[in-house]
Specification:
The chain has about 575 residues and is an alpha+beta fold. Helices cover about 30% and strands about 30% of the residues. Strands 1, 2, 3, 5, 6, 7, 8, 9 and 10 form a nine-stranded mixed sheet that branches. It is elongated. Keywords: Membrane, Transmembrane, Transmembrane helix.
Length: about 575
């Protein structure tokens, strides 16, 4: 029995020593009271735009990821973003990708080829899940989410050539306590093992009388001795093996019961994930930025400034408006008054790639009878939000809610009363032919549409009375493809652009020219012998209902003269 006890003690002591050392190293060297295990500072250098982790490197969720970056030479940026945003932001740029974490801690990298061009400063982009920027040491802490995410370290100004010391750490709640419990469990096993090896059991001794031979010799001479019967040693319930088993089971139950031994779960979300184009807060910030910059551009009539917050077709309308303003109001006495979009409601469909868009429905300060309905677009993750469509429906027009807007799918087209492209073409025909067009029956016109048709009818009647004008032709055409969103009731909210050419044919032998008004910003006192032309750009917003739910509603039709001339 002593051999078995010593052998068991030796095994327990060796196991306890190993567990104790492991627990001590983990608790007091690798982890510490902050429950974080990290790589230590790793010196990473990239000639490209950034240093970014591969999307499959962060393949678990639940714990908190800590990232610290230090660049002594220049301000540094550190951020965590979804892979669809990071890949779009770095697309076409050279950068360094961290592809593997080796033990002992070492980050294995791979050079990604591309241009060494300056990127837009990352801190101004709103899609980062966590970010920090500035001089010296910059740190972020991010609860790891399910999905494809990447860590990015780069120069704060977006210039290529990153040289930083980077530390990646993972904080697991209760990890330090787990390591301490492992350390204590190892000590218990070690002590139990040593006790089994060195502690000997003492058996009580009973003195046996030794009679003198002379006295008892005759008494026992004729008696036969018998050996006592063998009795198995009694097994005590509190033996060393049972006590050790109970101790080990108790420690295991303690680890599980406290949740300290939990392992972070593997990511299950598909890599091709989608997300809303923008959060409500970031969407409202983009709206405010637009109104601030747009007001400055309007006051300065600065088209270059407008380019930072607008894209086509709105940008072309702004450029033309500035040109007309400089011609007719050189003194700047009739500039647009500053305004804001009030109480903006944000409709942000989900996207899995760029470009991304969101829709804004808001009031307009100083215009109680008007609302604004616009589309903000981001071409790629590094680009700013810009306004592409912006129309101003009257408050008497019912505008659909933008909450719950989504991108159309193939099944939606068969449910609509008209395809968006067909609706756009029919609208162009309706406007070209006037109120009596057969296509008019397809639409419920907005007040602005009715006003436009009436104005064009009056112009045609007046122009054809001129002796030098033979005929007038007014032609609307669609420009580009309509932009469509699906509302919660299954209707389609459609934005589109239309060009208009108002052409006056000149009588043979006569000539004509533009002499006054907004058209003189584009052509003034230039004689034309064949025709005079006015070019307009229109933005429209339509609601196409599901089949059997009524006509196509024109929410707004907004116009701008963008050119004039002739031949």
């Amino acid at each position: 029995m002593r051999f078995v006890r010593v052998l068991l003690g030796l095994l327990l002591a060796l196991a306890g020593l190993a567990v104790t050392l492991a627990g001590a190293v983990a608790a007091f060297w690798l982890v510490g009271p902050d429950n974080t295990v990290d790589t230590g500072a790793q010196h990473l250098v990239s000639k490209g735009a950034a240093i970014a982790t591969a999307p499959d490197l962060l393949d678990r969720h639940g714990p908190t990821l800590h990232v610290t970056a230090t660049d002594s030479a220049k301000p540094v940026f550190v951020g965590i973003g979804q892979e669809l945003d990071v890949s779009s932001y770095l697309e076409g740029s050279a950068y360094t990708r961290v592809v593997r974490l080796e033990v002992p801690p070492k980050l294995e990298t791979q050079e990604m080829k591309g241009d060494a061009a300056k990127l837009n400063p990352p801190a101004g982009l709103d899609w980062w899940s966590a970010k920090a920027t500035g001089a010296g040491e910059q740190s972020i802490a991010w609860p790891m989410a399910d999905g494809a995410y990447s860590v990015v370290v780069m120069n704060a100004d977006g210039t290529p050539g990153t040289d930083a010391r980077v530390t990646l750490g993972v904080e697991l709640e209760g990890l330090f306590v787990t390591c301490l419990l492992v350390f204590l469990a190892g000590l218990v096993l070690l002590v139990v093992g040593l006790l089994l090896i060195f502690l000997r059991r003492r058996r009580p001794s009973t003195p046996v009388p030794v009679p003198t031979v002379p006295q008892y010799e005759q008494q026992y001479a004729n008696q036969q001795f018998q050996a006592p019967a063998y009795q198995a040693p009694q097994q005590h319930q509190g033996g060393p093996m049972r006590r050790t088993a109970l101790a080990a089971t108790g420690v295991s139950l303690l680890l599980v019961a406290t949740g300290c031994a939990a392992v972070p779960e593997k990511n299950v979300s598909p890599k091709a994930a989608t997300r809303p184009a923008v959060t409500v807060a970031d969407g409202q910030a983009a709206v405010k930025r637009y109104t601030d910059v747009n007001n400055k551009a309007n006051q300065a009539r600065d088209a270059k400034l407008s380019e930072t917050v607008e894209a086509e077709p709105t940008l072309s309308m702004s450029r033309a408006g500035f040109k007309i303003g400089r011609k007719l109001d050189a003194a700047g006495k009739e500039k647009s008054k500053p305004f804001t979009f009030t109480e903006p409601k944000i409709g942000a469909p989900r996207y899995g790639k760029y470009p991304m868009r969101f829709v804004v429905s808001s009031g307009v300060s100083g215009a109680a009878d008007t609302r604004q309905l616009g589309v903000w677009e981001r071409e790629n993750a590094g680009a700013p939000w810009v306004v592409t469509y912006s129309v101003y429906p009257a408050t008497t027009v019912k505008v659909p809610s933008v909450e719950g807007l989504r991108q159309p799918v193939k099944a939606d087209w068969a449910k609509l009363a008209s395809l968006p492209k067909s609706a756009a073409d029919n609208l162009a025909t309706y406007l070209s032919e006037g109120a009596r067009s057969p296509k008019a029956a397809l639409f419920t016109p907005s007040p602005g549409t009715i006003n436009l048709l009436n104005a064009r009818a009056k112009s045609k009647a007046a122009d054809t009375k001129e002796t030098y004008i033979s005929t007038v032709v007014d032609t609307f055409r669609t420009s580009g493809d309509p932009l469509t969103f699906i509302t919660t009731d299954g209707s389609a909210l459609v934005f589109l652009a239309l060009t208009e050419q108002y052409l006056q044919n000149v009588e043979p032998g006569s000539n004509a020219y533009w002499t006054s008004g907004a058209v003189t910003a584009f052509s003034s006192y230039v004689k034309y012998t064949q025709n005079l032309t006015r070019d307009h750009l229109h933005q429209a917003a339509l609601v196409i209902p599901p089949k059997g739910k009524g006509k196509i509603r024109i929410l707004s039709l907004d116009s701008q003269l963008v050119g004039a001339g002739g031949s």
